[in-house]
Structures are given as structure tokens and as C-alpha cells.
Amino acid sequence: MRLKIMKNAILILIFILIFTSCVLCSIAIPFAFAGSAMHVKVVYAKKTSAAKNIFSPGKVYSNGRQVFTAPFTGRLIESFAFPKLVAAGTVIARVVNPGLYAKIISARSEVKYAKLKLKREKLLFNYGVAAKKDVQTAALNLSNAYSSLRSLESIDREGLLISRFKGTVHYLAADGAIVDAGSRIAVSNGKGFPWVKTYVTPSQSFNLYDNMTVEIKKGSIKENGVIISIGGNASHNGLVPVYISLPKNSRLLPGEWVNLRFAESSAAAFSLPERAVVMHKGETSVFAVINNKAQAVLIKVIGRKGGRIYVKGDINSAEPIIIYPVTRIKSGIAVEIKH
Length: 339
Known about the structure:
The protein is of the alpha+beta class. Helices cover about 25% and strands about 40% of the residues. It contains 4 helices and 21 strands. The longest helix has about 35 residues, at about 1-35. The radius of gyration is 42 Å and the shape is elongated.
């Protein structure tokens, strides 16, 4: 019994010694490092001319430009040999459907025959030889013949390409060429110039301004336009309209979709390794070394490329920036640069 009590006493004593040692260590370690600086690795921010790109699709519009397309597959005839200034209502070309004229001549012959047939049936009806039903059938046949002829003539009229306003016509297909239905044949440049319309978010619109240069791409076509107007509200599904003028002699046609790139120049940007950027108190920050102490500096990220990050902020390129900052680092703590 006495032996058991002694064993329990020894175990309790050992537990008390271990607990006391842990407490003393937890108190002594911070004090031991309180007077020493934290070793850190640093880099220096590099000034750069980074750019914040905004990409958006756009569509080409025009009030004074007309694009002529083939209404059906056929041969292009009666086009001018070179670009020409034409008045409104001018026939600039004609698309001929193969065999259409022969069908029209045949339909006219059928109308002529149906007229004679009706006249004959009426005469026979007056002499009491033909029945009224025969006259009605002949009249119906004449009406059908007229309908067929009008249908063919309407197709022929659709092949006429007529300018809606005064302008200069430029042909995209040679005279006598076979064109497919819907293919572009010619373009008429009137008084108005084409432009591009796109939509951006309200936050993106704050980075745009009038007369800003915009890169425009469509396939192999690369051109530069200029912002002529930025909408004042986001009434189109929460987006702001932006209007861009095209250069003179632009190869883009109304109705075409293009890719736009807005580049915001940022001369006050800095380049840093991504591992230097941290979240500190809910804000994107970096830690600069100022007078041998760490100091948090708020930044705004504007881009990333190749493992580096481009930021704006109150950064001094002469002050080192801590990389791999540990979680226990904070503003005001003493640091020592590790070389």
C-alpha cells in the first residue's frame, strides 16, 4: 500500500516538473528573441511602364455606307469598270440567275396563250357552244400564268443592285464573276464614316477616355481606332456603350464583328515577384523595410506576367521589399536583411 502511494507521488511530481518547464520555455523564448531582429530576404521594386489591357468585342456600324450582297447565286453583270461616284437610285450592277430570262420568256408566252384561250372560250360561250365552266377555267389559267410571270420578274428585279444614297462605289467582285447568295459584291461610301460600337463594365469605363487609341483586329486586318464617345449610363444590361472611330480607308465593313483592345498606360507602376505580395488585414499589401523595421504598404494589382506582378502604390524603389513574409510579421517589427 505504501509502495503504491509513493509511485503515485513520484508520477505527480514528474508531471509538475514537466508542466513547469513548458511554462518557463513559453515565457523565456519570446523574451529571448525580443531583443533580436527577424531575418528576412528582400528584393527591390522595379519601375515599369506596365499596361492594363481591356478586351471587348465590337460591331461595325455606319449611316453613310452600304454593302451590296448577292440576293441569289448567279453571274454579276453591268458593273462599272472602276470606282465611280453615283447618285441615289443608280443601278450599280445586276445579278443574273442562270436560265431566268428563258423562264420569263416562256411565262410571257403562257400568258399570251392564256389570253387567247380565254377570248376564244368567251366567244364560244356567247354562241352557246361552250359552257360557263370552260370560261371560268380559262380565266383561272390566265390568272395563274400572270402569277408565274410576276414571280419570275420579281426575282429578276431582286438581282438589281441599287444605291440608296449618293456615294462612291467600290467593287469586291469582277464583272462577269459567278457570285454566291449572300456574298459581298460592292461597297458604297457615302457622306458618313463607319464606326465601332462596344460595351464595357462601369469599372472598366473609368479607365477609358476620349481620343484614347484602340487596337482593332479582325483576322489578318489590324487597325487603330480612337474613342469618340463613352456612354454616361449602364442602361444596356448593366454595361456602358463605347463608340470608336475607324481610320480612313478602313477595310472593315458595316455589320462585321471585331476584337478590341484598350491599353491604359501606367507609368507609375512597379514590378515585383508574386511571392512578395500578401493579404494584410484584408488588404493587398507588401512589406517594405524602412529604418530596419517592416512596414506594410497598400498596393493595387494591375497585372501579372511570367511570375511577376505589376502594382500601383506608395512604393519607393530605393526601399527593399520583403519576399516570403511569414505570418507573424507585422508593421513595426525589427528585421535584418539576410544576404
